[in-house]
Structures are given as C-alpha cells and as structure tokens.
Amino acid sequence: MLYWKPKDKKAAICFTIDDIHPAKSSDLYEAGGDLEKGALGKVMWLLNRHPKLSVTLFTTADWRETHAFPTRKILSKIPKLRDKFYLSKRLKKGTMSLENHPVFVDFLNQMKQTEIAYHGLYHVHKGLKIPVEFQNQTPTEFDTIITEMLRIFEASKIKNVKGICPPGWNAPKALLDTLVKHNFDYVASSRDVLTPISRDAQCNMSGLKNVPLLYPTFLNNNKIVHIPSNFQVNSSIDRAIEIIENEGLISIKAHIIKQVGSYVALDGVDDLYMNYLDVLLYSLEQKYGDALWFTSMGEIAQFVKNNN
Ligand SMILES: [Zn+2]
Description:
This protein has helices at about 40-50, 100-110, 140-155, 175-180, 235-245, 270-290, 295-305; strands spanning about 10-20, 55-60, 115-120, 165, 185, 190, 205, 215-220, 225, 250-255, 260, 265, 290-295. By secondary structure, it is an alpha/beta fold. It has one domain (about 10-305): TIM Barrel (Alpha-Beta Barrel). Strands 1, 2, 3, 10 and 13 form a 5-stranded parallel beta sheet that branches. The protein has a 4-stranded mixed beta sheet with strand order 4-5-9-8, sandwiched between helices. Helix 2 links the parallel strand 2 and strand 3. Zinc ion (ZN) binds near residues 18, 19, 123, 131 and 167.
C-alpha cells in the first residue's frame, strides 16, 4: 500500500469544500463572495475553534453555471440534440473570474489554515449533466480548458496547490493525462459516503470507482495521487471512528452553496453542519489526541511525493 502518512500517526483527517467562487448573496446564490459575513465566516469559526484543522477550498477559475438543472425544458427532452446545447443560462465569461475579483482573492489568500486548489474552469457542460465540466472532450480540448484555468489562477495571484476536484466528480482518462502533463500533484475524484468501512472498501458512488475508500492511491502509472472523500454532514461519528480504527483518512466534504432558490443542499455550509463538525472534531481529539494527523489534501500529496 502507498506510504501516505507519518509513521507516528494512526489515521488522518482532512476537510474540503467545493464550488468556491466570488458570487455574493446579491447574485443568484452566495459561494464565498460575502467573505466573513457569508459561508466562509462559518468555516472560519470552525477553523478558529480547531487550530490544527485545515480546509481545502476547491475554487472555480471563472464560474459560469447559473442552474445545475436544465431550465430549457423542451430542448432538454430531445435526445441527441440536447447534448449540443447548454440547457441553462450561462454567466458571461469573466463575470466570476478570479482575475476580476481581487478583494475576494486577497481574502482567500489571508485565510488561516486554508489551502486553495482547483475546481474547474467554468463549472458547466452542454447536455443534461450541467455541472459535470469534464466529460467527452478530446485531449486537445482538455488541454485548452486546463491551460486557461491555470492562466486565470496565475493572473489572479491566488495562492494555490496543484490539486483538483473535478466538478461533478467526473475525471475521464484523457483529463487525468492532461493533469499529469500539467504537473498536478493530486486529483480528488470520488465520493462515497455509503459504502461500509473496511480496509478493502472501494469507492462506488460518485466519480471514479474501484479506488480505495479509506486511503490515497496512485493513478496513471504513479504520476498523480488520488484522494477520496468518504464523510459528510449525515455521516455518523461511528463512521469516523471506524475509519480511524482502519488507519485511514477521514475525508470530509462540504459544498459552499447552501441554497439556490427553493433547493437546499444537504451538505451545504451552514451553522448546523459546522456545529456538527465542531462536536465531531472535539470528540476525536479527546479520544485520539496526537495519533490523529490533521492534514490537507495538498499536504498528503506532498508527503506521498517525498516518501514513495
Ligand atoms: Zn462543483
């Protein structure tokens, strides 16, 4: 098995949040743009209470999605044709680009215990699976997308690590090849909060299948590290303890957007979720102390790089 954590640590814990971009509550929905007054303020409250905890903010370079479901209802019912169109409105290019939101970027850059990584270029795709940005593109198309995503991050001066959580979890082979070509250290491309915990458990829910549920692993001939997500707001404390007892990684996932119109995201950042994590972290700290490695996906990827 991959050597992915220090020998004196029994298990590890990390926390990641998807869909970070500059949208404010005065836009369609808030995704971090309200800074300390919005969802990020709730995250900072948790970080303050747990000085060892790190958060990874998976941030989109130029978010263009409006709705994750088709609003062009008639078109969305016509097989084949619907795959050729965007089935909900897209924001104009640049509207949410990090390049055009320096205050937001500065705010993320000064957040304590925080690591920023990638979550796609536009977070949209044609056809029914709107948020799943990486689907059937050619290697050349993937290269164009990733190059532009990197350019925007660089131009905005956002501090970051070379890791990505693909929007909607999907990471086709041609995308993984492109990420390797661009020297990405890790990809977080599977979520499974249902499969029971055991040493051999494999991810079998969203995104990549048949990768370890509890442990990082190598993909693409050991060129990139995969890190799973296996825990969310409705996962039990028992699940966390089982992961620790199997010397695994508790990989907690949240989404920054809690509410879009009448739709409420189960794992959106709100007071209740942050309170639950507060209680969870206190009880794990009490039980395991320093045997538990509070880390981040970027730190794990570096550890793997340096020790394998
Ligand atoms: Zn997303």
